[in-house]
Amino acid sequence: MTSRIPEPAIQDTPSDTHPAGLASTAPTPGAAGLTSAAAVRDAAAALDAADALAACRDLFAPADAPGAGVPVTAYLDGNSLGRPLRATEARLHDLVRGAWGTGLIRSWDEQWMALPYRLGDRLGAVCLGAAAGQTVVGDSTTVMLYKLLHAALVHQRAASDGRRTELVLDSENFPTDRYVAATLADALDVELVWIEPDPAAGVTVEQVRDAVGERTAVVLLSHVAYKSAWLADLPAITAAVHDAGALVLWDLCHSAGVVEEGLDEHDVDLAVGCSYKFLNGGPGAPAFGYVAARLQADLASPITGWMGHAEPFTMGPDYAAGNGMRRFVSGTPAVLGMVGIEDTVDLIDEVGLTAVRDKAVDLGAFVIAVVDGLLSRHGVRVVSPRDPAQRGAHVTIAHPRCRELYRQLWGEGIVPDFREPDGIRLGLAPLSTSFAEVAAALLRIDELLG
Amino acid sequence: MTSRIPEPAIQDTPSDTHPAGLASTAPTPGAAGLTSAAAVRDAAAALDAADALAACRDLFAPADAPGAGVPVTAYLDGNSLGRPLRATEARLHDLVRGAWGTGLIRSWDEQWMALPYRLGDRLGAVCLGAAAGQTVVGDSTTVMLYKLLHAALVHQRAASDGRRTELVLDSENFPTDRYVAATLADALDVELVWIEPDPAAGVTVEQVRDAVGERTAVVLLSHVAYKSAWLADLPAITAAVHDAGALVLWDLCHSAGVVEEGLDEHDVDLAVGCSYKFLNGGPGAPAFGYVAARLQADLASPITGWMGHAEPFTMGPDYAAGNGMRRFVSGTPAVLGMVGIEDTVDLIDEVGLTAVRDKAVDLGAFVIAVVDGLLSRHGVRVVSPRDPAQRGAHVTIAHPRCRELYRQLWGEGIVPDFREPDGIRLGLAPLSTSFAEVAAALLRIDELLG
Predict the structure, then answer these.
(1) What's the pLDDT tens digit per position in B373-387?
(2) How far apart are CA B407 and CA B403, in angstroms?
């Protein structure tokens, strides 16, 4: 995957890695040209005109419609809460009136009992590179992570005669991952081994190789780092973990739906992720979990609810873990939160994940080009990777005044995210974000710093 | 609380325990009179005409509208999945279009971060008898139960120098409760002490007194038994548990919203419950958890996600449990699933929980009167308590042909629940269930057995 923005030699030629008709093919000015507001606006207009996914934007409910607060004219936080598709709005309404309101309890038998698995399989096929029977939707990311990590740690200890008692993780992982890991380590008498990510490279394969060994049980990492956007080398790190006889659990929260995961291809063991970011499931929509088929029978969920039972409606005296992913389900599936996920997965399936990833790369390159061309004179710097092969679908920029800038922008309906201590995180959701939105946010930052 | 159906002496006089204008005051035929279909229909019509909550039925989306499958003309499974209020239908639509679609990430700051606590407090005040700051909405019941039970078991062991290592529970509790308890017992080296409920009395205070002692850590029971509908003597059992120095965790899944709980008044320690039954939260809507204020600081959730942190957005290196109920929250709250709960709590607040409970009692008494008068000749028997003071808001009837009957009824749009081995469970949701619906179901059973 290459960006076509900072490298003019590539920009004038449509990339042959793009399926016909899907990727933007317009010439893009390099950073050298983006030194004025007009140039930035023109470049954004050209990129939007050539955007193969431009039509997708109209599929979303309008962010600037009259509603809650100042109308949002530039939304750059789809990596925190994705926007609702119009289809989701309609389907939720139909669900309340139909499957819930008239189907009533019958809808469990007819569709909802199978939904966590059916949607998991769809998500797996379209976004995760996972064959059927390995992905399930449910719980919050925190709870799903707890269940899979607990299961993996207990299994690894038992399978190694008590030798594998270390959990390797990195200090820049999302708080939930660190907190869940620390509490589980206390409860299970597991030792935490911390990797400090290289500011210039994220978590590297070499760091992982140095950290793992014959005492390693599990390695827990994020595919895309939530603050910096570093995209980890999932294939090489997974292989390094396996070389040490350990299991890897990838957190896909910031990559699912925008980065090709290839979980099966790269022999990943376990993964969790969230659905309310790039998958547009809505506020608090359920998480997903992936367990490689080869491992499922060996792992046991610590939270053994009736929905994970082999035969939930027998309601017998003893728990018997269901086969496959069923054993990782605990309580009753959160049906309302699954509608948006399914609609987004359908849309990604239609346009192709490659096109989504390509536009994410282009959006990120555009941010970097504008910062270099226009904002660097104010001292704004890019703290995310410049190499698109090492970057997820957000770009964090830093400046001492970012906290103040972000408050001002929010008040004006320009909505990026703030990250301590001095970062503005620009989420780039390829299905819904226009280059014009990115330009509007960055030009306004230029004015405010000017 | 007394029923006004099997006791004619009381029936002709409005009960003075009913707030004026809220309770049905019509004379009701006793079982002796309900020996014909015509008598049953007449009685149902009279009861519906006098039903103080009759107007509530029109607040629900119509179950028999064109939609999924055969139109439902009698819905008697609101104790498995409550029907959607029309208000919920509208508010969900507004939420997608407004707070989600236009408020976007800002809605977290402005309303959703506080929602689990705000809605928990409302639910606590209206339905649970719980002062603010002790109830939170989130997770599935299974996960919430796991967290609170884990916290209580660990605390009790530590507070007793390792002496309190027993968990008392009953063999007729809902499967999730038994399965979660058994797995936690294995993980935490806790011993399970089983109570076998008395078929003629449910779980009695005497049984609890016999089961608890100085080794008891926690007693886990359901307020209303999911199959039989036995309503446990929560005040006396809670006191008995406390006499032994143990903690009690009440499962309120089948009582919340239809039975006065009085959690604070009766000094309950912990409780969990579900919201998609009588609280109409919708399929898979989140659970709730209650922890008495006096205990909160001593208990630690095993699942330490970022949302339970004292300052979630600091995202610092170490977990610091939030104060109050915050520490029992794990991941991002499931917002879509909370709309229906709030609407139902608002409605219960408006009509009064006492009126809801009174109608539940009347509906149950009507079922029993019809079984006694008409169905007993086929061998149908009531397996739920006859004393309304000992009965929740469902009545289970038994007959060897119940499985076949239930399938037939579903095909005709009459929807009760089936429970192994030979029970039909009639859920009586006072806000949405009419006496005519009950009559229709029972008369059809009479025809099918006739």
Answers:
(1) 999 999 999 999 999
(2) 6
Tell me: ipTM over 0.95.
no
Q: What is the mean predicted confidence (pLDDT) over B68-85?
A: 94
Clarify whether A147 is annotated catalytic: no
- Assess whether B425 carries a catalytic annotation: yes
Instruction: Judge: A107–B319 Cβ closer than 8 Å, yes or no.
Output: no
Least confident of A19-28, B29-38, B46-55: A19-28
pLDDT of A23 above 70: no
Contact A182 B303 (CB under 8 A): no
For residues B315 and B309, give the distance between their C-alpha atoms in angstroms, rounded to a whole number: 9
Identity at B175, one-letter amino acid code: P
Nearest in space to B149 (alpha carbons), one of A311, A305, A328, A189: A305
Q: How far apart are CA B256 and CA B260, in angstroms?
A: 8
SS3 A415: strand
CA distance B397 to B380: 7
Q: Return phi, psi of residue A369, to 5°.
A: -65, -40
Instruction: Kindly give the pairing relationship between strand B423-427 and strand B394-398.
Output: antiparallel
Closest Cα in chain A to B65: A102
Q: Which residue of A has its CA nearest to B305?
A: A176
Q: How far is CA B230 from the centre of its chain?
A: 12
How many angstroms from the chain centroid is the CA of residue A432?
A: 15
pLDDT for position A102: 95
- Give the 3-state secondary structure of residue B289: strand
Query: Are the C-beta atoms of B237 and B208 separated by less than 8 Å?
Result: yes
Prediction pTM value? 0.93
Report the sign of the C-alpha dihedral through residues B222, B334, A270, A166, in that order.
negative
Q: With contact defined as beta carbons under 8 Å apart, do B133 and B325 qualify?
A: yes
Is B174 annotated as catalytic? yes
Which strands, in side-by-side order, build the sheet including A191-195?
Answer: A135-137, A288-291, A270-273, A247-251, A216-222, A166-170, A191-195
Task: Supply φ then ψ for residue B152, to 5 degrees.
Answer: -70, -40
Which pair of structure tokens corresponds to residue B406?
């239930």
Sorting pLDDT into bands at 50, 70 and 90, what band is B17? very low
d(CA B318, CA A401): 27
- B142/A284 touch (CB, cutoff 8 Å), yes or no: no
In whole angstroms, what is the distance from residue A236 CA to residue A208 CA? 10
Q: What is the pLDDT of residue B331?
A: 94
The answer to whether the Cβ–Cβ distance between B332 and A104 falls below 8 Å is: no
C-beta separation of B15 from B4 below 8 A: yes
Continuous H helices in A27-140: 37-50, 54-57, 86-95, 106-107, 115-123
